[in-house]
Amino acid sequence: MTGLHPALILIAAAPLAAGLPGPWRKAVLLGAPVLAVASVTALEPGTAWRLGFLGYELLPLQVDALSRVFALIFALTAFLGNLYALHVRRGGEHAAAMLYAGAALGVVYAGDWLTLFVFWELLAASSVFLIWYRSTPGALASGLRYLVIHFIGGSLLLAGVILLAGGGDVRVASLTGTTGPVFWLILIGVAVNAAIPPLHAWLTDSYPEATLTGSVFLSAFTTKVAVYVLLRVFPGTGLLVWLGVAMALYGVVYAVLENDIRRLLSYHIVSQVGFMVAGAGIGTELALNGSTAHAFCHILYKALLFMAAGTVIHATGRHKLTDLGGLARAMPAALVLYLIGALSISGAPLFNGFVSKSIVVSASSKAGLPAAELLLIMASIGTFLSVNLKLPYFAFFGEARGLDPARAPVNKYLAMGGAALLCVAIGLFPGLLYAWLPFAMNFEPYTVEHVLQVVQLMLATGLVFALVLPKLGGQPTITLDVDWLYRRPLAILLGRLVESLRRLELGAEAGAGKALRAALPYFRNPFLAPTRLTRVTLGPPRGAGASAAFDEERGGGDPAGEGAVPAYDENRYRLRAGLSILFILAFLALAAALALGLLRW
Amino acid sequence: MTSHLPALIVLTPLVAALVVPVLAILARVLVRPVAVLSLAASLAASLASLQRVLAEGPWSYHFGGWAPPWGIEYVIDPLSGGMAVLVSFFALLAAFYAPAYLGVLAQLREGALGSLFLLLVAGLLGVVVTGDVFNLFVFLEISSLAVYALVAAGGNRATVAAFRYMLIGTVGASFYLLGIGYLYAATGTLNMADLAARLPAALETRVAAVGLALIAAGLGVKVALFPLHGWLPDAYSTAPAPVVAFAAAVQTKVAAYAFFRIFYFVVGPGGPVEPLLRLVGLAAAAGIVAGSLLALAQRDFWRMLAYSSVAQLGYVVLGLSLGTRLGLYGALLHILNHALMKGCLFMVAGAVRWRTGRQDIAALTGMARKMPLSMGALFVAAVSMIGLPPTGGFFSKWYLVLGSLEAGAWGYVVVIIVSSLLSAAYFFRVIEQVYLRRAPAPESEAGRKPEEEAGREPEAKAGREQEAGREQEAGREQEPEAATAARRRPWELPWPMLVPILLLGAGVVVAGLSSGFIIREVIQFAVPVEPF
Amino acid sequence: MTTRRRLYLTLGLGLAGTVAWQLLFPHPEHVIYWFHRVPGFDVLLGLAGAFLLVWLPKTLGEYFLQRGEDYYER
């Protein structure tokens, strides 16, 4: 086991998971993550693989405490996710999920930026299929946007990495305190994956559109991989504290308005990752531990929440709060499991959220950031409100709509049960998690005052919820987020850019044509030049009718409508032979002028 | 025999080109084997020459034993050896692909088409191998004329496209001829090595300067430099697939090679060269952006690939214009990588056209089921075009960016990255069509019914809708096997078409992973010791 | 008594109980800022925070952010 790279185990298993028939596939789906978990536990900190490539020394595998704990939870989630998706028949979905999990492990163990980048791109490339496989028009469009944004983020990251590589040393190390393009490019590239507003809209746009089983994987990996990189590369960067706090509040504010249950949970991903980002920013050992612990726990309970939501959607065919209600009697198990997840995310005592969230909050307080502490607590209030109270109330209780849910396959419940068990186990025995954290921990979450604090918060919030209950019901609306900026104006902008190229060409052609036609008489009879010139300059412009006819022949003038993209016609973009030759002559003239020194740059 | 290898590289296809039409009348069955054998011999000769040159140093071969500057000299160095291997390898692949693709047409016109193709190959190999600038022109024109005719073989629209190509291409070739004429007037020699010796003295004169400008313009046309690229989209979207695959992969690269050879080996740094290179670099950058944008607007798959080629050639020329060592590595690596990627893509496009008769992007809908292997190759090639590791496209872009940084050209870095985004946009669209859209079928229409309906509905309706919604969800999760048409043949394509596609697809990845090897063993020797 | 009243009663009593506990058993050693010392601070924080986190989104939504479901398809 010590010789195996856990990422490669999952990546190698992906084609098997896609291609093998029934029982064999299930064996691979469950067996490969187990193997990966075993490999993760067996890899000792300090293990490293070295590889020379293109003149750089690569470290495809480098183990230390931070990568171990993230790798552990990723491998565990791969198992739970696969268990949840055991009934899915389409092989491609399984392959995509395995590649995705493998890529996450790859990033976590990467010791150098090149390896990291390769796996980073694989992360985006494989996860988009989890969205696309849903096959609704919304999913296809959303997946394309997801891909474009992740590609942009990846390009920025690449630019930063190349700049860094120019210096020769490609090891992944802390950039905190440096300034300059490398710092900002890599930070922004990572921020895209971490869904830091305003770069977060892809998450809330596409996670609700993904396949039901795919969402479970999506919720676990991309953002936490980014958190891992932030913890390793930007610890203590002050900016991250405030970005994290803002993120935490942003998510809960939007969640209150949400009607789609998975989009509501997605906004909470943004919120919880805010805690992690803030922890990374604070930078003390306690904060980094807290951020790591929070990532660990969040993956578990978020997966559980998405699994439960997926079960509800699968069973009822509906995903909006306005369409759901009264499910408690028909789906009690789902309700209970959901509530375990919800109590975890809210940080209730006895569940894992309590033992992890409190570390970050406490760290902010000990680091001298009372404002951050209070705001993070406020975010917790919001989380409790939406996830623990609003969603279950309106989905499971509330007005019954005569829904008759189907039975869900048992593997779903097994997976949820497993996740719930882990949530409770860590909640009851925090030492299990604390042992894996990168730095030594002497933090005791279960103090009386702490428990009292959380209980007070929850009871008070519950009171308010009960008071304003009628106002909190779902509404059949959507909320505009920053993705409006590129969903509306950008498509038009691109269309205009291409059109303007064509107009340029049309203009050049028309201009050349006019010039030629005007010059033609002089070639016929040069002696007429003086008389003609005076007539042309003093008289009205000739050939107005001719050029209109010429335009018509070319396919009309401006397209109708402001931002409309004209219908496709390959003649629009064809460069006429004559114009081509004219361009060649122009190029030649320019080149000759430059070569002769007549023109200088 | 081995001492005449450089000549053999060019002569075997040339002689075969002359023999094939005769064979077509006398013994048709021999045409294909003769063509393939001659190309295989050429490839073997190229490989042997390259190997010898890497071990012993540049090899100068005097044609007919006549010493330069009066005689024609062939020079094999790592650069020309590598290019010769590239050209002959692709020629061999195309020779396998073409007969299967052309089918009936091939049988009727085998002699003519085969002869033209061999002439094309001979011409390109001649350009690559020759050490004399006028000889280069001769071979360039041989290859150009052959390709004009081959493009015209594609049918009605192709004939018009070939005519336009001929007009524009001839202008370019004529400018090149004029240019070397001016250089001859300035130095009195046509031999490359000789010119390299005599030019530095003559470089400040106006004659030489204008000559170089003419050469730049002429070769710019051949390499489809923006805005001299007007011939490319039409020619590449209407010609027969094997012609396009070969031409797109190799022919423009040979022109880029000629550019590299003349400006770096024959001329070297000096007065007029720097501003010319900068102009060329800017034009290349403009071409990268314009090509990518225009590719985005196309609905025809072939035109999209053609405009994409304009952009990709822009990368090569950009790298060549930078003058830094890493930039040149990037350009040469991209010559290899792009040949592999574009060759693969056009061959796959040809396969689709062969099967469905259509060449628009919509024709690719759901092809993943019918042609899984070819679409897999398409996917890999597309990923490489976008520039994702570990495919080759990533590594050539890496070096190009590093080269731009070395030269301090930040603007070029932005251009390269932005164009990667644009290529991602238009290639992802293709991938989406291939893998995720289903060709419309009756059962899928029913499943598309929207689940959500605004407003309150009475309970009875709620029950029914929720049934449908639940079915939809369950349907999505347990994807029923769509009823695919019975396979007409055991493999999706005839093997002479499928094997080159798969080879090139695999090659893209192999080239990527072995980038370090390629640079260490071949490319670093192909670059002059002190680029500027 | 209606369920609603019962609910309010239980919640209120619970809150009162916790505040009482805090008054009876203060914990000076874990105090860093002034608000750690105030008993029942988190009750206030909870009430105020929850109201704010309902009112703010609702207002933002009503005036700026909410649109019909088919907004992007139009």
Short synopsis of the structure:
The complex is a heterotrimer of chains A (601), B (532) and C (74). With 601 residues, chain A is mainly α.
Architecture blueprint of SSEs:
The complex is a heterotrimer of chains A (about 600), B (about 525) and C (about 70).
Chain A: H1 6-19, H2 22-42, E1 48-53, E2 56-62, H3 65-84, H4 91-109, H5 113-132, H6 137-166, H7 181-194, H8 201-206, H9 212-220, H10 222-233, H11 238-257, H12 261-282, H13 285-316, H14 332-346, H15 352-366, H16 370-396, H17 410-428, H18 431-434, H19 448-468, E3 477-479, H20 484-487, H21 489-524, H22 529-538, H23 544-553, H24 577-596
Antiparallel strand pairs in A: 1-2
Helix pairs in contact in A: 1-2, 1-4, 2-3, 3-4, 3-9, 3-13, 3-17, 4-5, 5-6, 6-7, 7-10, 9-13, 10-12, 10-13, 11-12, 11-16, 12-13, 12-15, 12-16, 13-14, 13-15, 13-17, 14-16, 14-17, 15-16, 15-17, 16-19
Chain B: H1 5-26, H2 31-56, E1 59-62, E2 73-76, H3 78-102, H4 104-129, H5 133-152, H6 156-187, H7 192-202, H8 206-222, H9 231-238, H10 241-267, H11 273-297, H12 301-322, H13 325-356, H14 367-370, H15 372-386, H16 392-406, H17 410-435, H18 442-447, H19 459-477, H20 495-513, H21 515-526
Antiparallel strand pairs in B: 1-2
Helix pairs in contact in B: 1-2, 1-4, 2-3, 2-4, 3-4, 3-10, 3-13, 3-20, 3-21, 4-5, 4-10, 5-6, 5-10, 6-8, 6-9, 7-10, 8-10, 9-10, 9-12, 10-12, 10-13, 11-12, 11-17, 12-13, 12-16, 12-17, 13-15, 13-16, 13-20, 15-17, 15-20, 16-17, 16-20
Chain C: H1 3-24, H2 34-37, H3 41-65, E1 66-68
Report on the structure:
The complex is a heterotrimer of chains A (601), B (532) and C (74). Chain A is mainly α and 601 residues long. Among the domains of chain A are: 235-478, no CATH class; 488-575, no CATH class. In chain A, 70% of the residues lie in helices and 3% in strands. In chain A, strands 1-2 form a two-stranded antiparallel sheet. The termini of chain A are far apart. Helices cover 77% and strands 2% of the residues of chain B. Chain B has 21 helices and two strands. The mean pLDDT of chain C is 80. The longest helix of chain C is centred in the last third of the chain and has 25 residues, at 41-65. Chain C has one domain (3-73). Chain C contains three helices and one strand. Classes of the chains: A mainly alpha (601), B mainly alpha (532), C mainly alpha (74). At the A-B interface, helix 5, helix 6, helix 13, helix 21 and helix 24 of A face helix 6, helix 8, helix 9, helix 11 and helix 16 of B. Strand 3 (477-479) of chain A pairs antiparallel with strand 1 of chain C, so a sheet runs across the interface.
